[in-house]
Model the fold of this input.
Amino acid sequence: MSVVSKKFQIDSKGASEVIDITDTVGKKLAESGLKNGIATVFTKHTTAAITIIELEKGMIMDLQALWAKLLPATATYQHNVLNNDTNGHSHVSASIIGPSLVVPFEAGKLMLGQWQKIVMIDFDSKPRTRDLVLQIIGE
Ligand code: ZN
Done:
């Protein structure tokens, strides 16, 4: 059993941008040389999240419409009031989804379903460069 950690960065526009990171994660997994185990994808930020979706335009539009309805940027957030900040909606949105995802792998390949893509969603209100970690536990 080995543990391999890989770090990488993703540039994003913010504003609930959904970015496909499946190929990057698969490539980093292949570089690890491990064949069977679990891979955790983690973002080191409080306004970005990691999840799996069916990646097509309608799905992205539906999710962005949901976030805008549930957590509009213009609502009152105590994070903004108490910290003189503007991205309370970004923090709440990201915390609901969560900063990490675990995906099993076998024979060096992520065991994703046919339509599953690993995405990072950046809820912040401005473009950012995001630090991510892929930690692989396997043999
Ligand atoms: Zn903030």
In short: The chain has four helices and eight strands. Residues 16 and 123 are 4 Å apart (CA to CA). The helical segments are 22-32, 57-70, 78-83, 88-97.
